[in-house]
Structures are given as C-alpha cells and as structure tokens.
Design a protein that fits this description.
- This protein has 182 residues and is mainly α.
- The chain has a domain of 115 residues.
- Helix content is 45%, strand content 5%.
- It is built from 6 helices and 2 strands.
- The protein has a two-stranded antiparallel sheet with strand order 1-2.
- A hairpin with a 2-residue loop joins strand 1 and strand 2.
- Helix 3 packs across helix 6.
- The longest helix is centred in the middle third of the chain and has 23 residues.
- InterPro entries: DUF6456.
- It holds the Pfam family DUF6456.
- It comes from Dichotomicrobium thermohalophilum.
Length: 182
C-alpha cells in the first residue's frame, strides 16, 4: 500500500507498478547500482498519467452513453455533480497541456506514449524509428524535464528555495487586484 497525492491530498492506494514501464525502470538498476529513474522522475510520470486519466483521454473499449439525454427522473447523481466533474476534467486537460508545452513536442510525444498509453520502450523505439536502447535515455531526459516542470526538481539556475511552496493563483498572468479605499 502506497500513498498517492491527488489534488493536493495524500491518500492510501494500491499501486500496481508492473503495469507501467516507469515501474520497471524504477526497479531496474544501472551499472553503478542506481535506479534508472529516480523518485522525482517516477512521480512526475505518474502525475502525468493520473492527469491523462482524469482528463478523459484514455482510449475507450466500449461505447460512451454520457451524451444521451434522459428524462429528468433517471438522474443518478446529485445536481451539480456533472458540472464539478467537467471542471475537474478541464483542469486536468489544462495541466497536461502545460506539462507537455514545458517539455516540448518531441519529449512530450514520448511521455504520452510511455507514461499515458503504457507503451514499452522497445515498441516506442520501433514506432519512432530510433536505435535500440535509445528510448531509455531520451525518456530519462523527458522525465527529468517533467519533474522540473512539476517542481519536483530544481532547474539549473533556480535559487535554493523550496519550489513546492510556490504561490499559485487562478488569475490571468497580468492580473492585479484592485484595492478600494474604505
């Protein structure tokens, strides 16, 4: 049993690390005995995968009946629940877009393939026409950049302050609050 962080709240959860290529990389050691990806890289990849799932971007194997209107009596959730779910979906989609913009399109494609679609490294290399064993190195770089984006690692020029305590707000980048005289 591990704890995972969802929307800023840590909760206990069963995690099957064998289903993810990241779990395999986390367990594997290099020649010096170090894991192929560290904890920050693993957490960054898993965070991207959670957002991908919550954004509703995972492939479906069955039909979706969400868009079919029903009569008012067949409602199965409390009023307003669907609006809240839509907001969470849009927020997850925005987090994914920002993360993939931060790492760039080439690394972003690899992250989506491996972290979100759970494609193996050999399969990814073949699909992209890369040399054997190259996806592992490129994925390590991509995960490091993703971890920096999420604030799990410091950037090279960043000061030694705690990046996890950054001030975040929902306003536009040029937003300035108005202070009125009493």
């Amino acid at each position: 049993m591990e704890t995972v962080e969802i929307e800023g709240v840590r909760k206990p959860a069963l995690v099957n690390e064998t289903e993810s290529p990241l779990g395999w990389l986390r367990r594997r050691k290099d020649k010096s005995g170090q894991p192929l990806i560290d904890a920050a890289q693993f957490e960054a990849g898993e965070r991207l995968r959670r957002d991908f799932f919550h954004a509703g971007l995972t492939p479906r194997v069955t039909a979706s009946w969400d868009g079919i209107p029903g009569d008012g009596a067949s409602r199965r959730a409390a009023p307003g629940v669907s609006a809240n779910l839509r907001e969470q979906t849009v927020a997850a989609q925005q987090r994914i877009r920002r993360a993939l913009e931060a790492v760039g399109p080439d690394l972003g494609d690899l992250l989506v393939d491996v972290c979100c679609h759970l494609k193996g490294l050999e399969e990814t290399e073949k699909a992209k026409g890369w040399p054997r064993r190259s996806a592992k190195l490129v994925l390590q770089i991509a995960l490091r950049e993703l971890a920096r984006h999420y604030g799990l690692l410091r950037s090279a020029g960043e000061a030694a302050h705690d990046t996890s305590r950054r001030l975040l707000h929902w306003g536009a980048p040029d937003y300035k609050p108005q202070i009125q005289d009493c």
